[in-house]
Specification:
Shape: globular
Strand order of the largest sheet: 2-3-4-5-6-7-8
Structural class: alpha+beta
Number of helices: 8
Distance between the termini: 40 Å
Helix content: 40-55%
Number of domains: 2
C-alpha cells in the first residue's frame, strides 16, 4: 500500500514538474501525466480500474460544468461598436507601456485607443499603423469576470480581399475565424519585434510584397476592426456555433458548446 501511495505521489510530482516547463511538448506531457496520476489513484488506492478510469475522465468532463452553468446563459452583442477610451492603468496592465514603446520602436505609428464593453466583458485595443509596410497592429487586452489576458496582432490585407493575421493569442480561440482570414500564430512569449518579424516572414511565404497589399488608412482602422468582428460573428452563425437570441444578441448553440469543449481539449494537450 505504501509503495502504491509513493507511486501515485511520484507520478503527480513528475506531472507538476513537466507542467512547469516552457516547452509545449513537455507541458502537454505533464497534462497527460496528471490524467495518469488520477487513474493510478483510483486504481491503486481505490482498488478499481473503473474508478481509475472515472477519475481520469473527470479532467475531460470538468469543462462541461462551466459550459452548462456560465456559457449556456451567456449573451453577447451581435454588433460590437468600438468607442474611444482612456488606456488601462499600469496597475491593471503592467506590460502596456513597454509594449507600446516596442511597437513604436518597430516603426508603427499610434492611432487610437478603443474598446467595446458588455455585461462585465471588455475588449480593449491600442491600434497602430505602418504605412510603408501596409500593416496595422494592435495591443489587445481581454477582460471578463476578473480574469484578463493580453496579446498582440499584426494585420495585412491583400488585394484579393484576404486578411493575413499574425498574433500570439495565448489560448485556443473560442470561435472560428472567418474564411477570408489566413492565420499565423506566433509563440506566446515572443516580444513585439519577434512577432513583427514572424509576420514579415509569413507574408513572404505567401508571396506578398508590400505592393501586393492594400495601402490601408489609419482613419479607417477602427471601422476595419468592427467589420472583421461582424464577419467573424456572421461566419460562426452560419456554421451553427452561434445563434441569434433576439434582434441584437447572440449566444452559443449546442453545437457551439461542443465546439468550446473541443477547444478545451486542444488547450489541454496543447495541439497547434
Amino acid at each position: 500500500m505504501v509503495s502504491d501511495i509513493l507511486l501515485v505521489v511520484g507520478v503527480g510530482v513528475f506531472a507538476a514538474a513537466l507542467r512547469s516547463c516552457r516547452n509545449p511538448a513537455l507541458f502537454s506531457l505533464g497534462n497527460l501525466a496528471l490524467v495518469a496520476t488520477s487513474f493510478l489513484a483510483g486504481w491503486l488506492l481505490g482498488g478499481s480500474v473503473l474508478l481509475g478510469a472515472g477519475f481520469a475522465a473527470m479532467w475531460f468532463l470538468l469543462p462541461w460544468f462551466e459550459i452548462l452553468t456560465r456559457v449556456r446563459s451567456l449573451r453577447l452583442p451581435l454588433h460590437r461598436a468600438l468607442e474611444k477610451c482612456p488606456p488601462p492603468p499600469s496597475g491593471q496592465f503592467p506590460a502596456f507601456g513597454d509594449l507600446s514603446e516596442e511597437m513604436e520602436s518597430a516603426g508603427y505609428e499610434y492611432v487610437e485607443d478603443v474598446e467595446w464593453n458588455h455585461d462585465g466583458m471588455r475588449q480593449f485595443y491600442r491600434t497602430f499603423h505602418h504605412p510603408q509596410k501596409r500593416t496595422s497592429s494592435a495591443i489587445c487586452l481581454s477582460e471578463q469576470d476578473g480574469f484578463s489576458f493580453y496579446f498582440v496582432t499584426f494585420t495585412s490585407r491583400g488585394l484579393d480581399g484576404r486578411t493575413y493575421l499574425t498574433w500570439n493569442y495565448p489560448f485556443s480561440y473560442s470561435m472560428r475565424l472567418a474564411p477570408s482570414v489566413v492565420l499565423n500564430k506566433a509563440e506566446g512569449d515572443s516580444d513585439v519585434a519577434g512577432i513583427d518579424e514572424a509576420h514579415a516572414v509569413f507574408l513572404e511565404a505567401q508571396g506578398l510584397e508590400a505592393e501586393k497589399l492594400k495601402p490601408g488608412c489609419a482613419e479607417k482602422l477602427r471601422s476595419e476592426i468592427e467589420a472583421d468582428l461582424r464577419s467573424q460573428i456572421e461566419h460562426n452563425i452560419a456554421c451553427g456555433i452561434l445563434k441569434r437570441d433576439g434582434e441584437e444578441m447572440i449566444r452559443y448553440s449546442l453545437r457551439g458548446m461542443f465546439f468550446l469543449w473541443t477547444r478545451f481539449l486542444r488547450e489541454f494537450v496543447k495541439l497547434p
